[in-house]
Amino acid sequence: MKVLVVGLGIAGPTLAFWLRRAGHEVVLVEQAPAPRRGGHLVDFWGAGFDVAGRMGIVPELRRRGHRFTEARGVTSRGRRFASFTPSALLRSDDRYVSIARSELAATIYEALEGRVETVFGDTVAALADDGDRVHVTFASGRRDEVDLVVGADGLHSAVRRLAFGPQQRFEDHLGIVVSAFEVRGYRPRNDLVAMMYAEVGFQLVRLSLPDDVTMFLITLRHEGELPGGDVHAQQGLLRDRLAGRGWETAAALEAMSSADSFYIDRVSQIRMPAWSHGRIGLVGDAAACPSLLAGQGSALAMVEAYTLATELARCDGDHGAAFERYETRLAPFVRAKQDAARGLGLAFAPRNRTQLVVRNATMSLMGLPGVADRVMRRSFHDTVELPESATSGSAL
Ligand SMILES: Cc1cc2nc3c(=O)[nH]c(=O)nc-3n(C[C@H](O)[C@H](O)[C@H](O)COP(=O)(O)OP(=O)(O)OC[C@H]3O[C@@H](n4cnc5c(N)ncnc54)[C@H](O)[C@@H]3O)c2cc1C
Q1: Nearest residue by C-alpha to atom 17 in ligand 1
Q2: CATH fold of 2-68+94-171+269-346, please?
Q3: Which helix (H) or strand (E) holds 234?
Q4: pTM for the whole thing?
Q5: pLDDT digits (tens, 9 = 90+) for 148-164
Q6: Which residue puts its alpha carbon closest to atom 29 of ligand 1?
Q7: Which residue of 292, 300, 330 sits with most ligand 1 atoms within 8 Å of its CB, as the best mutation to test the pocket?
Q8: How do the domains of the chain map onto residue ranges?
Q9: CA of 354 to the centre of ligand 1 (A)
């Protein structure tokens, strides 16, 4: 089969890897002009780590990633009130790495070793499924015909919009926005410690990375729209809302003006009644974004891509049955992750004083044996079983 995969994030190249291995012809299209660099960090672990293991990329992920030694809750004066190790929280000592989302994407893409046709700087503008083929018109004007199209183009998926309807029908905004930005030379530093500070309505996290890079992550209660595309207006919103807040908030906002990279978006989940329609399917955040509150979107994206490719490899030309089995296998598991994640908003941006007190009290107990496990079991622990790969051997 010829499969067009839209989006070169986490799910897209994973799907391309396994489809290619099963002997399918794959074309990857990415709207960015080149593979992205920098951007926010993801904690990568769980069943996604098992998929990475089967792809042989774990050593490279470890080389490019980091291992945080401590997550530390601090007061407005920077005094430590909570401390625990992230790997204990994830119940995963050696199957965990923190890595830039773009580095995870690049590592997966590099595993394809150039054997998949990739088009950068383009996207899909129209999709027409006639039952036998999908006729694709690209934004560049180019046209193609393929057997299947899979949207792996993230939270704001164009494939979903074109094939299933407008984003508003499927997006559940959780009333929080997230911003991540990287600066150089920021002081103070606490190497490989996640420093976490919260007040009612927001949380600020400072991550001191190698090469004198500091990453800030802000999660803020905000129900309204974000000023689209205008970085000055977006940064202005953060400055206005966080003026006068404690700990290093003022210094972080000051550093934001000279950030090397700046990201801001709504924290949302995507809930679709179905992950495919005819010859068009969705995977990763495009299909079922769990939001950053789940702490596992990249791992789920890899599990979904691997499972879809495995079902397509086994389907003997019946793509409809493969799409159905892919969704039946994973949708209940992913929905449970989404449901559990919704309850974690208070950790990222407490709504009120009571939630702030609960957050801080929970964090301060997290270092005690067994507590992290009990508190986070529903959200962070995986029960999904990966299907055996339908292809053997290690050659692409
Ligand atoms: C701040 C933050 C922190 C997070 N922390 C974690 C964490 O700790 N652990 C974790 O596992 N997950 C985390 N996540 C979630 C994780 O980043 C996502 O779930 C994951 O990246 C989803 O992968 P994906 O491939 O589906 O989509 P993406 O990684 O978003 O990739 C989509 C790709 O499609 C491209 N694209 C978009 N539109 C188009 C188009 N129209 N045409 C062509 N290409 C297009 C994009 O440029 C991008 O390359 C976090 C997310 C955020 C925002």
Answers
A1: 298
A2: FAD/NAD(P)-binding domain (3.50.50)
A3: helix 231-242
A4: 0.95
A5: 999 999 999 999 999 99
A6: 9
A7: 292
A8: 2-68+94-171+269-346
A9: 32
